[in-house]
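Slack export, channel: ligand-projects

TW: morning all. Re-posting the request from yesterday since it got buried. We need the structure predicted with the small molecule present, not the apo form. The ligand is adenosine-5'-diphosphate; the SMILES is in the block with the sequence. No rush, but it would help planning for next week.
GE: picking it up
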Amino acid sequence: MAQVRLEKVSKSYGKLETVHGIDLEIAHNEFVVLVGPSGCGKSTTLRMIAGLEEITGGTISIGDRVVNDLPPRARNISMVFQSYALYPHMTVRDNLGFGLKIANMPETEIKTRVDEAAEILGLGPYMDRLPANLSGGQRQRVAMGRAIVRNPDVFLFDEPLSNLDAKLRGQMRVEIKKLHQRVQTTVIYVTHDQVEAMTLADRIVIMRDGNIEQIGTPSEVFEHPVNVFVAGFIGSPPMNLLDASVTGDKAVLDDGVEVPLPAGCNVREGQQIVLGFRPESFAPKGHSLHGDAGALTLRRVVAIAEPLGTETILYVSLGGMDVQGKMLNPRVVHPGEELDFTLDLTRLHVFDKAFGRSVRA
Amino acid sequence: MATDVQVLQRPTLSEGITAFFRSPRAVPYLLLMPAMIVILAVVLVPLLVSFWTSFTSYNLTRPDTLYNFVGLRNYQRLLGNDEFWWAFGRTFLFVTITLNVEMMLGLGLALLVNKITYGQRALRTIMMFPMMFSPILVGFQFKYIFNDSIGLVNNALFDLGLITQPIPWLVDGTLANFSIMFAEVWMSTSIFAILLLAGLMALPKEPIEAAKVDGCNPWQVFRHITLPFLMPFVYIAMTIRSLDVARAYDMIRIMTNGGPAGRTELIWTLMTRTGYQNSQMGAANAMGYVSIILSIVFTFYFYRKLTAARTFMGGAQ
Amino acid sequence: MSRLSIEKPWQRWLIRFGVFVAMAILCVPGLWVVLTAFRPNIEVLARPAVWIPQNPTLDNFARLFGLSSAQQGLPVAQYFVNSLVISITSTLVAVVIGMAGGYAFARYRFKGKATLFLAFMLSRTVPGVALSLPLFIIWARLGIIDTSFGLIVVYMAINIPFTIWLTDGFFRQIPVDLSEAAQIDGCTPWQAFWRIEFPLARSGLASAAIFAFLTSWNEYALASQLTRTTASKTMPVGLMDFTAQFTVDWTGMSAMAVLIIIPALVLTFIVQKHLIAGLTFGGVK
Ligand SMILES: Nc1ncnc2c1ncn2[C@@H]1O[C@H](COP(=O)(O)OP(=O)(O)O)[C@@H](O)[C@H]1O
Ligand SMILES: [Mg+2]
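GE: finished. pasting the full C-alpha cell output, ligand included:
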C-alpha cells in the first residue's frame, strides 16, 4: 500500500521560492496527473517526491514513512524521465536489469523479470540493442520497462511523451493507461499537456506559479473549474472568456449583448465578471451537443471556419472578442455566412473579475 | 513577545566547520580539495617564496643571503638593465608575432584541408605530428636542419644550385631570430589548424545557405558567417597556446640558448642564466615575476574573449 | 560544408598543391631526423649531401643502450625508465585528482566557482622556467631535488588544471538525468558515478591522460633544473646532455629523438579522435 502525502511542501532555490507549501494526498493505486504551464513547479514537485531535490519545507510521506531525508534509492520509487535517461553504454536488457542488479538480485530472477517486462512492452526483438539504435517510441518503452521491472511503490513520470510525435504520443498514452491497469501502482504523472492529463488521470492537479489551483477528477475540473485560470487551461479548444458586468439577472457584454445569468450566482448589481462558455455550448442552431433547449439565440456572421472532419470550429465576434463555437455534424460553412447560434445557458461559467474565482453556485 | 525564550547556543568555529564538511554543500569543495592542495604546494607556495626571493639578494652559493632583504633593488636594477629590456621587448615581439602568424597559417590550413574531401582524416593525423613533439625535440630538429654545414636546408639549397656559400641560419643574429620563430610556428600552428578545422566541420549549413540565397559572394560569406562562428575556436586555441608560450624556452635553449651574442635572448633564457649560471636567484626571481605576469596577461586576455564569445554563441543558438 | 561551393578544376588543384606543401613542411623535418637515426655518422657529414641513406644501420640505437663496441655516451636506458615512471605516475595521479575537480565544476554550483576555475587555469600559465627557480630552492631544502618523487609532484601540479578543464567539458556532456536515474534505480551517488558517468566519460578521461602524459614526457624546463643525475634525469634532459659534449653527435641524438617520439606517437594515434573532441568541447560548451 503506497499512498503519497505532501504537507505544506515548499522549495526554494536560494532566496527564490518556486513551490509554495502545497498539500496533496494521493491514494494507493491512484493515477494523479500534475498539469500546468511550463515553469510552474511540476518537475520540482515530482523531483522532491523522488528525492532528487532537497525539500525546503513541509513533509512528504510515501506509505507510512516520512521520506524527507531518504535518498532516492531508499524510497522504492521509479521514474521515467523526459529525456528517458537510458544508459547509453548498456543494451536494452542491461538497462532494464540495472536496478535489479544493483539490488543484488540473482541472475535468473533478473532474467525472468526483465523478460516479463519486455513481454508487456513488446521489447523482445530489441533486447540486445543499444539505446542509440532505437527509435523514439522504443526508447520510451525501455524507459517504462526499466521503471516497471523494479516493482516500485510509486511510479513517477516527468513529461514522458513530450519528445514523441503526435501520433506516437496518442498510442503511448493508451499504453500507459493499460500499463497502469495491469501493474496496479500509484502513479504521479507530470505533463504540460492538458489533453494528456484529461485522458490519463484519475485525478488532476492543476498548478500555477508553484501553487495548486485545483484538484479534481477530469470531469470535475472540466465541468466546474474553480477559477478563470483552470477554466482557460483545461479543454481544447479553450473556453471562451468574456468580460461582462451584472445588470439585474443578466450579464451585459462589452458589445451590449445581454446574457441571462444562471440562478444562484453570487453576484452584486454592477459587478465586473468574466463569463465563460465552452465552444461545445456555442453552436449553430441544430448542431449543438446538448440540444437547443434553454439556449440563447444569437445571430452572428462567421469570420473563419475550420473544418476538422466530424466537427467544424467557427470563429465569430461576440462581446468585442473572437469566440469559438463548435459545430457538430457539420455542413460546409463559408466565411461571411450569417447563422443563428445557440448559447447553452445551463453550461455558463461565471467568475468574479477581481479574483478570478467562480461565483456559480 | 517571546524574544528571550530562545536560548540559542552559538556554534563554535570548529563545530561550524565540522558541520559544514558533513553537509552536502561541502561536496564540491571536498572534490576539489586534492587539486587545491597540490596547486597550493607546487605553485602557490613557490610563487610566494619566489616573490620573497625577488626582494632579497639571494645567491645560490651563499644560502644565508635568502634572508637578506634588499627591498626593490632587484626590480630597480631590472628597470635599469638594458639586457633585460632587450630580452623583454624581444619576448613580447616573439610571442605577438608567432601567435599571429600561427593563427593566420592555422586558419589557412584549416580552410584548405576543409576543402579536401578524400583523406581528410589522414591529413588531420599528419597535422597532429608537431603537437606531440617535445619542444626540446623541435629545437634539436631545427638546430640540425638549420645547421650551416650539414643542415637539410643548406644542403638542399646547395644541391639546387641556389647558394654557393652556406647560409648561417643560427649564427647570424637576424637569421637566428627568424629560425627560432620558424621553429615555434612549426611547432604550434597545428593547434590552431586542428581546432579551427573542428570549428569548420561543426559549422551549421543553414546560415551559409541563407547568406548565399541573400546574394553574398564567397568572401562575404566567409567574412560575415564563417569567421564570426569560428571566433570562439580561435580564442580557445589562443587560450591554450598562451597557457604555455614559455615552452618556447626549451626549444630556444637547445637551438641558440640566447646566442649568438645574446641576439635571441628571451626573458626565459636570461632568467635561467641569471639564476643558475650566475647564481643570482633574487634577480632571476624578479625576472620570473615579470614573465609570469606577461603570461597571465596574455592568457587572461584570451580567456575573457573566449568567455564573451561563448556567451554570445550561447545566446545566438 | 563539404560541397557547398563549386570549384573550378584549377582551383581544386591549387588547393591540393597548397595542402601538399603544408603537409610536407610538417612532415619533412621529423622524417629527416628519423632517417638520420638510421645513418652512420659519415653519411651525415658527407659532402655533397647524401639524401637517401646508403647504409641503413641500427648502430646508433645500439650505442645508446651501450650494446655496441663503440664508446658509450649516456645511460639512456635509465633515462627512458625514469621518464616512463615519472610520466605514468604523475599522469595517473593527476587524472584522478583532476577528474574529481572537473566533476565538481561540471555538476555542482558553489560559491567562488568561477574564480576558482580561473585560478586553476592561471596556475597553469606560470612558465616552467619561472617556477623552476623557487622550486629549486624549496626542493633542495626538502631534499627531494634529483628524485623522481620531486618531479612527479611537480608534473601532477602542471597537469591537474588542464585535466580539470577537459574533464569538466566531458562531464557536462553527460546528462545529469543518467546519474539521477541510476540513483532512483537504487545506486548510491558513488555507485552511480562509477557505473554510469565514469564509463561514459572514459574516452574523455583517456584523452586527458594522454595530454598529461605527453606534457610530462616532453617537459624540459623544470626537469633540467630539478634533476641532477641518472637517478632522475628524463629523456629530454638526456637529449640536451648530448649537446654539452664537445662534438655534436647528430646520429646519436637523432636516435634518442626517435626514442622520445615513439611513445608519444603511438599514444596520440590511439586517441586522436577524442583529443580534438576534448579540446573543443572543453572550450565551447
Ligand atoms: N536548479 C534551479 N535553480 C533555480 N531555479 C530553478 C532550478 N530548477 C528549477 N528552477 C525554477 O523553478 C521553477 C519551476 O521549475 P520546474 O519545476 O522545472 O517547472 P515545470 O513545471 O516546467 O516542470 C522555474 O521557474 C525554474 O526556473
Ligand atoms: Mg518540467
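GE: first-pass observations. Chain C has a mean pLDDT of 85. Residues 3-64 of chain C form one domain.
TW: perfect, thank you
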